Automatic annotation (TrEMBL):
<dbReference type="Pfam" id="PF14334">
    <property type="entry name" value="DUF4390"/>
</dbReference>
<dbReference type="InterPro" id="IPR025500">
    <property type="entry name" value="DUF4390"/>
</dbReference>
<protein>
    <recommendedName>
        <fullName>DUF4390 domain-containing protein</fullName>
    </recommendedName>
</protein>
Length: 191
């Protein structure tokens, strides 16, 4: 006599979630905010410096090496600690940074939009490090902060699929290897 396996919908759901988790763990490519510092600049305003590790997927790096520019969106907010979702941010900045490979010169270029000129690099690793460096970015004036409240800086970075060439976008929307993001990371705003 043959033993029958029990297949319930909950077992199938658990197996599906497990497979999805394993496939994401195997990919291992994602963006991480490694460091974030804020400082008060002569009592006039706050400045931010950060270091982001861009762990692009193999597919994204292959596209980059074939001349496809990759654009990342860096979203920075300053909010009151414990603020409700509907409360306005004191600062809400969005930066678009681009990394591209120029095959004729065999160099990588990193720049912040709307500019189209930036720093040039011989190696991809050096260009990726430069892409993730934010140095002394002006956040907001110190006068906008209430002295009796605590504030936090929130930062998220994502690969901007809409900036990819049109023929590449459908595949990028469907494949997890192109859905790269750091998620929101929070730090207290330090003087």
């Amino acid at each position: 006599m043959r033993a029958r396996r029990l297949r319930t919908p909950s077992t199938a759901l658990v197996l599906g979630l497990l497979l999805a988790w394993v496939s994401l763990a195997i990919a291992g490519d994602d963006f991480r905010v490694q460091r974030l510092d804020t400082r008060l600049d002569d009592d006039r305003g706050y400045r931010l410096s950060a270091e982001i590790d861009y762990g692009f997927s193999a597919e994204a790096l292959e596209a980059l090496d074939n001349g496809v520019p990759l654009t990342v969106l860096i979203h920075i907010q300053v909010r009151r600690s414990g603020a409700w979702l509907w409360e306005d941010s004191l600062a809400d900045l969005q930066l678009r940074r681009v990394i591209r490979y120029k095959p004729l010169s065999e160099r990588y270029q990193v720049y912040t939009l709307p500019d189209t000129e930036g720093r040039s690099f011989v190696s991809r690793e050096a260009a990726l490090r430069a892409l993730g460096e934010l140095i002394d970015l002006r956040l907001l004036g110190a006068a906008r902060l209430a002295p009796d409240s605590d504030y936090e800086v929130q930062l998220r970075t994502t690969l901007e699929i809409e900036a990819l060439p049109l023929p590449l976008r459908p595949m990028a929307y469907l494949k997890p290897a192109w859905k790269l993001s750091s998620g929101w990371t929070k730090w207290p705003l330090q003087p």
